[in-house]
């Protein structure tokens, strides 16, 4: 499996994350994320959450309260350090009639079968 | 070398980064960061910069324009996936009479001798 193929797999996992986000699909998040207690998630403007139960709850709350945001993802760049890889993207978000732009660092770990998310850190872009 | 010892080494590298930041020490940044073209740095509110030359220039500009910020680092938590490791921290910054709080994800890679920074993503905390 060459690096280019690995990068494609990671980008597919990354797209799967944004699809789950747009669709408000908590079950897809369950499948996508690693379920260990070290996973990390920082939503824009917020401090980090740790461990899948806490991170999962934050997605459930977002889906319940904010509805499903629309996200246009641009500028994806992947870095592979097998079995880890990370992707930076620009997130163009439309949620509840409000638009915002964030930069995100998404980290994935290969579990022997597929790439699972271990970290998502999104930060608001300003000016 | 056990995991606890590794975590200590990573936290030391992480403290080295904040010391270099406080002292405005570009040479220390040179030594701390990996110099490859995949290193990643997102300053609070900004999009990601890539590659050591571009990242280095951003630190030089910060040190020249903003002076040396004071940084109180709290809540450091390290995750080790040898030869990679990442640390999340809360950054309490005082620069130019202005205080701010950010959450940061700092990633390090072991080069066989020491842990070198490969990514720094800081995002402003809001309310």
Spell out the key features of this protein.
globular, 6 strands, 3 helices, alpha+beta, 127 residues, homodimer, six-stranded mixed β-sheet
Largest contact between chains: A-B, 29 and 30 residues
**What count of helical segments of chain A does DSSP give?**
3
Spatial arrangement of strands, main beta sheet of chain A: 2-1-6-5-4-3
What class, by secondary structure content of chain A?
alpha+beta
Low-confidence stretches of chain A: none
Provide the gyration radius of chain A in Å.
14 Å
Q: Quick one: overall form of chain A?
A: globular
Strand content of chain A: 35-45%
Alpha-carbon distance between the termini of chain A?
A: 41 Å
Assembly of the depicted chains: homodimer
Which sheet architecture does the biggest sheet of chain A show?
Answer: 6 strands, mixed
Topology of chain A as a string of helices (H) and strands (E):
HHEEHEEEE
- What's the mean pLDDT score of chain A? 93
Count of strand segments of chain A = 6
- Fraction in helix of chain A: 25-40%
Verbal overview:
The structure is a homodimer of 127-residue chains. The mean pLDDT of chain A is 93. The first copy, chain A, has a six-stranded mixed β-sheet with strand order 2-1-6-5-4-3. The first copy, chain A, contains three helices and six strands. The first copy, chain A, has 127 residues and is an alpha+beta fold. Chain A has helices at 3-23, 26-32, 52-65, and strands at residues 40-42, 49-50, 70-81, 84-95, 98-110, 115-124. In chain A, helix 1 packs antiparallel against helix 2. Helices cover 33% and strands 41% of the residues of chain A.
């Amino acid at each position: 499996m060459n690096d280019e193929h690995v990068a494609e797999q990671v980008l597919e996992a990354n797209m799967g994350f944004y699809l789950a986000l747009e669709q408000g699909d908590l079950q897809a998040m369950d499948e996508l994320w690693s379920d260990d207690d070290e996973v990390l998630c920082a939503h824009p403007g917020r401090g980090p959450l740790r461990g899948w139960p806490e991170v999962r709850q934050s997605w459930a709350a977002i889906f319940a309260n904010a509805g499903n945001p629309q996200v246009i993802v641009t500028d994806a760049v992947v870095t592979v350090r097998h079995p880890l890889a990370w992707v930076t993207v620009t997130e163009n978000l439309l949620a509840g009639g409000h638009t915002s732009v964030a930069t995100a660092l998404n980290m994935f770990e290969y579990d022997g079968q597929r790439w699972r998310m271990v970290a998502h850190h999104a930060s608001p872009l300003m000016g």
